Amino acid sequence: MNNYPTNFTNEAALEEALSRPTSALVKMMCEIEGDFIFLGVAGKMGVSMARMAKRACIEAGVQKRIIGVSRFSSPEQQVFLEESGVETIKGDLLNQEFINSLPEMKNVIYLAGMKFGTGGNESFTWAMNSFLPGLVVEKFKNSKIIAFSTGCVYPLVKVASGGSKELDMPAPVGEYAQSCLGRERLFEFGSIKNKTSVVLIRLNYAVEMRYGVLVDIATKVHNDETIDLTMGYANVIWQGDANEMILRSIQYCDSPARHLNISGAEVISVAEVAKQFGKIMNKEARLTGVEADSALLVNVSQSHQLLGKPAVALDQVIKWTADWIENDYRLLGKATHFEVRDGKY
Predict the structure, then answer these.
(1) CATH top class, domain 11-326
(2) Among 79, 268, 280, 343, which is most buried by a count of CB atoms within 10 Å?
């Protein structure tokens, strides 16, 4: 168990925790062959995940190239990665010539994608989520590939069901989720065609202090805003745990492609979490609506059997989040829209 602080007083401390490798990851880096390339590294998870991979290599005493690829619309992220020992390559992943110019790497982490703003921009969403995977799986056909997907490819399921399992049939709602299933299908096609080892990560939902389902709830409680309970339940996982589990899932790549749900062990109640934030913040959680008997939930028994359970408990993340919000530290300013039931993000 990592000895995390009782709270985070700045973003540097938070970034350190998000990228702190476990002994299991360090051990894997000693044993696994090849370097790593992170495609779409500058998103919400990529920076801390690439830094975690680099730190694990340093602790393992092994020399591996860790490369992050992105347009780097925020130059400070590129600088931050390079200062951490991660090599960077700047370019547009939708440019086929750029894709083909990338170095061959044994291990590929695919993080690129488009979610918010799909409405009115459907063609770009499909290009990012379905066309680009086809280019990537062909370029890196001799690699092992971890490809980010989402639990949104599943339908809403009864809360009492325990969540969708990997072998359940997808039933995506809305163009974003449909394009994500398209992403999976392109990786599956390449995996079968070229015998490429792939694992598709269906993630619901990674959270940290600046972004995520818990930040959305905590912010509304802190600002005395009303919380709609219609989507009354969700899965969440501390992003540091998600980073670690996803990196170690490279060991379970297969052909045909394997699917793996990643999240925390609990199904959280939005109402109960809001009340917990209210108690910590000395606020009254304002709730409206009635919980539907269905939600977007994943069953994580398979990933927890393979990779172990997340190290950080939900109560700990709630306390960290409440402290961060009350201190008015920086947020990413991007709502997750976890409460959406019609697939329109």
Answers:
(1) alpha beta
(2) 268
